[in-house]
Amino acid sequence: MFKKTIQKSEQDDRDYRLIRLENGLQATLIHDANADKAAASLDVAVGHLYDPYLAKNNGGSNAYTSTSNTNYYFTVATPALEGALERFAGFFHSPLFAPSCTTRELNAVDSEHKKNHQTDIWRIFQLNKHLSKEGHPWSKFGSGSKDSLSKAAKLLKEAGLLIEDGVSPRSTAATPSPTPPRTSSPTPSTASTNNGNEADGGAIGRETRRRLVEWWSHEYCASRMRLCVIGKESLEELSELTSKLFSPIPNRGRDALPMIPDHPFGPNEKGTLVFVQTVMAFHALEISFPLAWQPPLWRHKPGNFLSHLLGHEGAGSLHSHLKKKGWITSLSSGPQNLAREFATFKVTVHLTENGFRMSFDANMIRAHPPLEHYRDVIHAIFQYLSLLRASKFDAFHQREIARVSDIKFRFKEKRRPDEYATSLTEYMSWPTPKELLLKAPEVTWDWDSAAGENEVRKCLETLRITEGRVVLMATAHEHSKIASSDLTWEKEPWYGTKYRVERFDEQFINEAEAPNANKELFLPGPNEFIPTDLEVDKRIVTQPLKRPHLIRETSLSTLWHKKDDRFFVPKAHVVLDIRSPVGNQTARAAVMTKLFADIVNDHLTEYSYAADLAGLSYNFMSQTNGLYVSIHGYNDKLSVLVRKVLETMKGLSVDPQRLSVIKEQNQREWRNFFLGQSYTLSDYFGRYLLTADQWSLEEKLKELPCKRAISKTSRDVLKVSVAISADEVQAHVKQLLSQVNLRMLVTGNIYKDEALKIADIAEDGLGISSLSAVELNERALLLPQGSNYVWTCPIPNPNQANSSLTYYIHFGPIVDQRLRVVSSLLTQILSEPAFNVLRTQEQLGYVVHCAPWMLAGSGEKGMRIVVQSEKTPGYLEERVESFLKSMKSTIENMSEAEVAEQRSGLERKWLEKDKNLADETSYFVNHITTGHWDFLRRESDAQFLRSVTKNDILDLFLSHIHPSSTTRSKLSVHMISQKTRSKKISVAASQAFETLLREAGVEFDAETWNKSLEGDATNFTNYWRQILEMEPNAARLLNAISELVEQYPVPGEGKDIPRSDVTYITDLKTFKASLAKSADSGPMIEWGDLPVSRC
Questions:
Q1: Which residues are paired to 790 by β-bridges?
Q2: Interaxial angle between packed helices 302-310 and 450-461, expressed in degrees from 0 to 180 and rounded to the nearest 10
Q3: I need a labelling partner for 1060 at 20 to 30 A (CA). Which of 133, 632, 788, 803 fits?
């Protein structure tokens, strides 16, 4: 056991202990007397760089594999910690590796890969790995796919080294499991039924599993494991429990922290410019430099120091200079630890169209080639780096960084226990003194000698153009504007990303290495926002207040306030919900409201950046019916930022040049949305169809005209409007602010009189809305009883392989407490089985969720099931409804103990304490912005929950959920993939072909050929072409294969057949117009806080 005291935050009331078991496993034990949830995390010091493939736990978000580590974690109610920890430990000393799960796990990994296949961040990440020096581990394909996982086994099979009915000659550990580890689907589809050989993957699956077990038995070693356990138990009890449960894990004598000291950048990778074709439309460049691994430099954190300067957004910064040029929309920089022993420093810039290339009219393009402004951006970055190398760093630069980090650590609040445990197990592998486990990763020390600055200078010397690599990202169309069309593009093997590589010419290198001559670039001055008054009035109360109090109400506003009496940190939150009937009156008005919010943020960047560095931040955004402002952080200078933000909102003059940039940015983001994940599209249409006053993205895009606007749900060219001007936005905002209703909340280390002053600042200059607060609430659209609607839509991205289904069932208004509570319990009961059946057992896809869905205004609720899959949406809906039908008997057969367990779990969830001031404020905000004011709902509903019976649950299920119900209200959205995929042979088609073979008198071994194929129609045909080569009926039999493929399709492939029991929506606007709006009766509770009559 480690004897020294663990240095912790002054706010931290937990007790810590570090122990090391005899097998070498290290553990951090945390006693939290006030915890209502326990957690554990175990980190293994091997990741995919040490792994020939990646195996993901398909239990959801309870594990992840990184480059150098794999982390497993869980959270559980505190009384259940011991049992959960026992099962958790068993996973590491006695894992099942059940053969019958092999195919399922391969499919799960493959489904996740296909989910990410059209996502640029994954594509470019893998391309950067692919472009490593030859043989470096960093080049490995980390996320894995079915092909990558089974590649080695397939090669052995092709070489004749695998036995079809047995095992590899090299192994005896691949026999099928006699029983599956999980129960099968209660309503199996044709596609989901697998025999034992299919479940273990046949010879290829068994060999893949053998390799996994071999790798695990070699690499998973107790000395490589770091554990963190958080619970209410004493440290002695946690120590005993940990020792008992985790000591059986074997120590295999492996090195505790395997290192990879070699960097993936060699001479061929440095000094290069990589052009990359993206899926989404954007322009960006990223510069990566080799960097020393940062954890050993924990005291002064030189990479963070350089990031502080290079990524600064204040006056004189690189960001400010490039933004004034109109070339960028964002710039960020910082160190990134890629793996143990090597890191990179990255500068990432998102470019405007003008920042990518200079725009010309047609005549100028013919006369002169377009200028490549991205090269000017690159040059400016290296100018700033030259400035840093030539500059003297004033003492205040590091002192400010150290001071802010020290304040942050001093007043660090609690967070979710599983997140905390996970972060600590990663930090346990850092080379820091054990007593600084909590402090070293988060606090930066001041430069007490020349060593600190020397570390920075050493890092800075590596940030040169000859050492780094630049990646330029844009669509193929955009690349064609700056390059010859006859250039050769290569393809990254796993995602198919097209790229080409050039080396920088000598002239450009010399320019980039030259001293800085740009007078607009200079280092930031002292930060005036760093807090100095950190006093907290810590008045201990018997019972903290459970809600804020209404301290002022006028025809213009309501002001709620709660002085912090729980967390005692020098922080505060100010929230202003500004509603106006003008903000969303038309699609054009909604666009202008959004543009104005972005313009305010754009204008405040230089001013607010220093505040953000000092722990004081703001959010200013548009919302459906107006604007939303929140300011949060250390309260010392919070009122200064509040005043500045609100003065800017009220007095800003719209700059036409910046408006042009922001219009371009919004137009690009809205178009790119339709190229995102399929399930986000089905969710979007589901929300749009059930929201009363929402303009579609297509309608908004009409208000941002360009040369050609294409509808995302049809091939028609959209009619576009006249361009929005700066004067029009200015007039719109003036009108918006002349008709408002304010809902305000102030919480934290602020007294009532200060809250009232903030309200005065907010109200100054604003006009009163002609509509009441209730009339300005959002409204949902209600499905009629006995309805079954479907909206179908093709997915715009032709390369997106996944379709999606959003399946919504309506419950009703939340003002009905019984309905509110019983529906929550019913949704909880359905959620886990939905995941288990639809994802784990039927393997429909990686994305499967079943959860509550609040409609617009949060006054109506329902349940939504979403599935993203390569199967068709109609088939997915069939499987969802089969699952729901099966749940009838499950609920009917639930014992009273099972019902009580479900009630108890939901009650604990509702009564879980807020972990910090932000959590508490967020809960209050929800009730204030919705106008419900029902702050004690969690306690009230938890009390009501105890009276809910199984019959209550079953009655609601039968009336609102079960597909046979004549009173349920249901809407589903089908997003249909347009990507052509290879035909597969279904079980029915292969059986029909066997029948034809027998009728033709062809002799064959059915068992052998079935195991030799994987269902692909092309492979199937080629296989039989060889077998039937000498048969007289060969041509007829081979021609029959394509007919059988069409006649007996694989379930869930091909086209969905329209259903007679469904009403298909043909026009979105007409459908929405047919629905009734939800009611809103105003506050659910009147608290009577005001001592005087309202004014």
A1: 972, 1064
A2: 70
A3: 803
Helix (H, G, I), strand (E, B) or coil at 31: strand
Q: Which residues contact 951 (CB under 8 A, 6 or more apart)?
A: none
pLDDT digits (tens, 9 = 90+) for 181-212: 444 556 666 554 444 346 788 888 899 999 99
Residue 835 tokens, joined? 């995941």
* Residue 596: Cβ-neighbour burial (10 angstroms; 0-12, 13-18, 19+): buried
CA 404 to CA 615: how far, in whole Å?
Answer: 8
Instruction: Provide the mean pLDDT of the chain.
Output: 91
Name the pairing type of β-strands 469-474 and 272-277. parallel
What is the longest distance spanned by two Cα atoms in the chain?
101
Encode pLDDT of 105-142 as tens digits.
888 889 989 999 999 999 999 999 999 999 999 999 98
First-residue to last-residue Cα distance in the chain: 65
Q: State the Cα–Cα distance between residues 483 and 479, nearest whole angstrom.
A: 6
Half-sphere exposure of 785 (CA within 13 A, CB side): 6
Closest CA to 93 of 152, 23, 46: 23
Based on its alpha-carbon atoms, the radius of gyration of the chain, rounded to whole angstroms, reads: 31
Phi/psi at 91 (nearest 5 deg)? -60, -30
Sheet holding 70-77, edge to edge: 15-20, 26-31, 225-231, 37-44, 70-77, 63-65
Beta bridge partners of 349: 285, 331
Are 118 and 672 in contact by the 8 Å Cβ rule? The answer is no
Q: pTM for this structure?
A: 0.91
- Using CB atoms within 10 Å of the CB of residue 92, give its burial: 0 to 12 exposed, 13 to 18 middle, 19+ buried: buried
Say how far apart CA 85 and CA 64 lie, in whole Å.
18
In tens, the pLDDT along 351-365 reads 999 999 875 444 444
Rounded CA separation 370/483 (Å) = 10
Contact yes or no for 619/326 (Cβ under 8 A): no
Q: State the average pLDDT over residues 867-893.
A: 97
- The rounded distance, in Å, linking the Cα atoms of 1025 and 1037 is 9
Is 737 in a helix, a strand, or coil?
A: helix
- Token pair of 872, please? 């068709």
**Residues whose CB falls within 8 Å of the CB of residue 785, separated by 6 or more in sequence, listed in order:** 967, 968, 969
Q: Strand, coil or helix: what is 601?
A: helix
Residue type, 605: T
The answer to whether 56 touches 112, Cβ cutoff 8 Å, is yes
DSSP string, 971-1014: EEEEEE-------B--HHHHHHHHHHHHHTT----HHHHHHH--
* Residue that is written with structure tokens 């046979």 in the block: 964
For 662-683, give the secondary structure using H, E and C.
Answer: HHHHHHHHHHHHCCCCHHHHHH
Whole-number Å distance between alpha carbons of 615 and 754:
20
Q: How far apart are CA 630 and CA 922, in angstroms?
A: 11
- DSSP annotation of 381 reads H
**What is the SS3 assignment for 888?**
helix
Q: Is 135 left (phi over 0), alpha (psi -120 to 50) or beta?
A: left
Answer yes or no: are the C-beta atoms of 841 and 185 closer than 8 Å: yes
- Does the pLDDT value for residue 736 go beyond 50? yes
Nearest of 625, 646, 620 to residue 582 by alpha carbon: 625
The 8 Å CB, 24+ separation contacts for 402-408 are: 402/443, 402/444, 402/445, 402/446, 403/530, 404/530, 404/613, 404/614, 404/615, 405/442, 405/443, 405/444, 406/443, 407/530, 407/531, 407/534, 407/615, 407/634, 408/442, 408/615
730 by Cβ neighbours in 10 Å (0-12 / 13-18 / 19+) ranks as middle
